[in-house]
Amino acid sequence: MAVRQDGGGGFRTELDDRGRASTSGYGDLLPHTVEVVVFGMRVRCLGLDKLIGVKRAAGRPKDLEAIAELEAIREEREKLGS
Q: Would you list the domain boundaries of the chain?
């Protein structure tokens, strides 16, 4: 799956070789983002729960490996109450 910018300034998801897609566009993901400051710039990043869901939907080995790490981060955050 690949996410590419469309001609209207938005994004679209292209299907992978198994015909799966996890999103239909930037607008679908925006409500699931958080704003962070990186090198003095405000950027939007997927929240942890949505990121885990997107990686699970992608189903690639590298994404499935990352899920275990992301879930561990989520558990630590829950323990710390943040």
A: 2-80
